[in-house]
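Q: For a teaching session next week I want to show students how multiple molecules come together into a single three-dimensional assembly. I've collected the sequence lines for a complex. Could you give me the predicted structure tokens for the whole thing so I can convert them for display?
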Amino acid sequence: RHFHFCKLPGRVMGIRLLRFTSVVIIVLLLVAGALTALLPTIKDDKMPNLRREPKAQSQSALDSFTLIMQTYNRTDLLLKLLNHYQAIPHLHKVIVVWNNVGEKIPEEMWNSLGPHPVPVVFKVQTVNRMRNRLQNFPELETKAVLMMDDDTLVSAHDLAFAFSVWQQFPEHIVGFVPRKHISTPSGVYSYGSFELQNPGFGNGDQYSMVLIGAAFFHSGYLEDFQRQPEAVYALIDETQNCDDIAMNFLVAKHTGKPSGVFVKPVDIRNLEKDTNSGYSGMWHRAEHLLQRSYCVNKLVNIYDGMPLKYSNIMISQFGFPNYANHKNKM
Amino acid sequence: RHFHFCKLPGRVMGIRLLRFTSVVIIVLLLVAGALTALLPTIKDDKMPNLRREPKAQSQSALDSFTLIMQTYNRTDLLLKLLNHYQAIPHLHKVIVVWNNVGEKIPEEMWNSLGPHPVPVVFKVQTVNRMRNRLQNFPELETKAVLMMDDDTLVSAHDLAFAFSVWQQFPEHIVGFVPRKHISTPSGVYSYGSFELQNPGFGNGDQYSMVLIGAAFFHSGYLEDFQRQPEAVYALIDETQNCDDIAMNFLVAKHTGKPSGVFVKPVDIRNLEKDTNSGYSGMWHRAEHLLQRSYCVNKLVNIYDGMPLKYSNIMISQFGFPNYANHKNKM
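A: Of course. Below is the structure for the complete assembly, covering every listed component.
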């Protein structure tokens, strides 16, 4: 009994100490684990909040972009533009969003005219919706998306330069078409371009949006777009318009900065007049601009605030087309 | 003895356990401490490596800049320019680096023509040195420095815009005069401007330096400049040139990116011809450009490598002077 009694305190003390230290060690490990989780993520991907599923990170996926072009009733323009865009430097793949519901994709003709520089995927849509182009396509392998309207021709030089600019501003929409909103004393917002009054921050003009119909942006934003309030989809479907305004709201909310970076194009053309289909784009509808002002105000309601911010930064390519564009008396 | 004997194992076991757990706890605390140190620093100050002594951080010190203007033998130009620059928006103070050794500063005249919008400090120099303007002046209270040559007139609009650009790129030299280096097959570098061959990265031109004689940069770089190899000071003193090239090397090394951001000036003028002194600037010396190529190669030796990087980003102000500068067919 002595023996038993004598071991007991040691063992009890040992056990208590053991328990205590185990708890302390576990607590410290949890703290260490939490701190590790707070360490900055690897800087390669500058967008830690976008929960993009990991895909095979080939070298090309980082240094190239995917062209997403939605098309409706302008197949002649589409094919003309594809001949141009399929050869742009750093292009990884083309995704054609086929809004011609019920009409066969020109896959046979496309293949018969191969080989082609890059893969071109035709995504058949079941409903003709403006926001079809904002799906998170599984074929998308690159971090960068170039989105183009199917009637817009931008030169290869402009695109190569704008892509290099996007690589320096990957969280922004880097593109060729700036727009702005202004607020009025009544609190109602208006949408427009240069014709609208300047927002009044110093001299010159400001822009608060860059339209996605001719722009580069991070593919993670397509993933983000799938997680927006239902009211946003309803608005875009109701107007068949404003998906680009919605994207600018999304990006501005995400970054807390101006959503876009405007790159002044040297050569950008609208080929609308050249189509045989006789179809003219949505922006010819009488109510188009009013609709977009309407969208701005609806989105402010949906997002409970105005996240768009102004910028007056205009980027051009140094010494292109020629060095005269930067020569001065110095 | 039973008792003594029975306590001993318990106490020994307890002590061993205690020691062991103490060691474990200390190790875990050290690990936790190390992890905490790796947490990202507060993002307000984007330059965590510059050991700038904390000064009173008034609101104006963050939203304004200090003009540093060195002057030699052109007091008439200096005074003409001071009338202009003293009224630039967001200017906090002017520091005139008086290289007219032995000559009285025009303080009496300056005061008699007061009041002035901002304080102007005349720093009398004992030796006429080019690098006098790169001292870490105690009068400097702002994060931003605007450095101007004493014969250069830049419009208030350009300066206000460039300052706003600097605030978005605070680790860069944001200014109006781009230059570049090129490498040759022999490994020898050359210095120049648009007349030199393009470095060959795609089309258009590139720049790898922005001259500090008309530029904004972070005041922390003046502090950094005091800690450069002696050979750098010797080079600048030997040539009475190249302090700006040295600053570009310093900034490029610090950031690992292009040192400068070029803002295309709307109105920049060289007033050299207007001086009564008959003194024409250093850049008129026959050997000026050759000297600068010489400096590039010497600095590469001193820093054991070429840190300068190319950029082709040219920034202009959106819609200024008028909105025609961004209108296009879209």
